[in-house]
Amino acid sequence: MFSRILIANRGEIALRIIRAAREMGIETVCVYSQADREGPWLEQADQTVCIGPGPATESYLRIDRIISAAEIANVDAIHPGYGFLAENAHFAEVCRDCHIEFIGPSPEAMGTLGDKISCKRMARAAKTPLFPGSDGAIEEEEEAVETAAKIGYPVIVKASAGGGGRGMRIAHNEGALRTSIAAARQEAESAFGNGAVYLEKFLERARHVEIQVLGDKHGNAVHLFDRDCSSQRRHQKLIEEAPAPAIDPKKRDAVARSAADLVRRADYAGAATVEFLMDQDQNFYMLEVNTRVQVEHPVTELITGIDIVKATIRIAAGEPLPWKQRDIKISGHAIECRINAEDPDRNFAPQPGRLERYTPPGGLGVRVDSHVRAGYMIPPHYDSMIGKLIVHAPTRPEAIARMRSALTEFDIAPNRTTIPLHRRIMDSAEFKAANVEIHAIEQMLKG
Ligand code: MV4
């Protein structure tokens, strides 16, 4: 096992990794930017290293500075968390070149699954369900027009290197498709340096369901079931829950096994999330694979009892997965609300500045993953998530009631947060009935 690891991240996920490492007897070195000098999580690290000014491009995204810190502190491994460099295959490669273990997949596996066209090619072989569409990249416009006629409009053109909603265009007819292909190619070329685009049938009403998978360095992969992350706004998730509500157990099993098969085929070591859209008839269509631990990993931890962050560290150290698929079972229901310092009444404008009051809720089945405290100055440089409130209860209605109560208890001032919005969603008939589709929150905010 590693003796010392470096955490190339900040905020709640840095603290989450420190906690896991300390329980495992591993020392932590946390890098930080000048804007995070007073970050409360740094007090929990064994060592800290300042790597530059506040803007992420000058600190948390600087591979050279992070590697220098890792060399000076003499760490065995680097945990990237999520965001920043977590899905950067070049960073994983530099770590390997420097003989520092990257806690995550190999650059090759990250590259294969991170590129949506090569990921879909592998998914086809693993029998992971896919949208009808182009077979790989669009080469000839005429061919794409023929494919669209066959599968029917609307269709969506996506960039192979894109993700999280960037580089997508919907077309409702042939003329629009021709324009979309050219525009998407250009956009992808300038944004990602890779102009490859592909075509899919566009699904208008859907839920976003994702499967958590863990793979090891010995050819094993298991899934940890599913999460529903349909409550989003502009591709930013607001609420996640596990398991995804009202899914036929046979369908759940089949799609989850196919996700684990895909990850196994990619020779993938670490935590992966296979994202799907699900239609009203519970048909699944794979979207993409995230090659990192995710913000919403706690809901899966609560229903399976598996510590996902510890698992990523053990996997990177070369340990085989300690479970067979049949050992992993769902217990109860978990919901996570992202607590962002944003004003939902002012178009979610960020609310940086001093937190004067901060009193988190507690009690049975209530977990708060947060790096803040009263008196903390929220810096303007990073995303506005100041914590995650996660609850676990025997059933979904009990989890909703527990979340409702915990949100009421949560006291933050003077900064506006997403807490009142979450309370409204927990009270809504739509959420209670579990029929939230991916555009429902935007609709709710308009109405
Ligand atoms: C789609 C889609 C409908 N049909 N693909 C958005 C993010 C990226 N991961 C893929 N996305 C979508 N792909 C087909 N064929 C609708 C979306 C989409 C979406 C997906 C998940 C969660 C929220 C979303 C919001 C808008 C669009």
Describe this structure in words.
The chain is globular and about 60 Å long. The longest helix has 19 residues, at 174-192. The protein has 3 domains: 4-103, Rossmann fold, CATH 3.40.50; 116-201, ATP-grasp fold, A domain (Dna Ligase, domain 1), CATH 3.30.1490; 207-446, 2-Layer Sandwich (D-amino Acid Aminotransferase, Chain A, domain 1). Helix content is 33%, strand content 27%. It has helices spanning 11-23, 63-73, 89-97, 107-114, 116-125, 141-151, 174-192, 249-265, 297-304, 308-316, 396-409, 419-427, 429-432, 440-446, and strands at residues 4-7, 27-32, 47-50, 77-79, 101-102, 155-163, 166-171, 197-201, 207-215, 221-233, 236-242, 270-278, 284-290, 333-340, 342-343, 349-350, 353-354, 357-359, 366-369, 377-378, 385-393, 411-413. It contains 14 helices and 22 strands. The protein has an 8-stranded antiparallel sheet, with helices on both faces. A 5-stranded parallel sheet has the order 3-2-1-4-5, sandwiched between helices. It has a 3-stranded antiparallel sheet with strand order 7-6-8. The chain is α+β, with helices and mostly antiparallel strands and 447 residues long. Residues 131, 156, 164-165, 200-203, 208, 232, 235, 277, 287-288, 438 line the site of ligand MV4. Ligand MV4 binds next to strand 8 and strand 13.
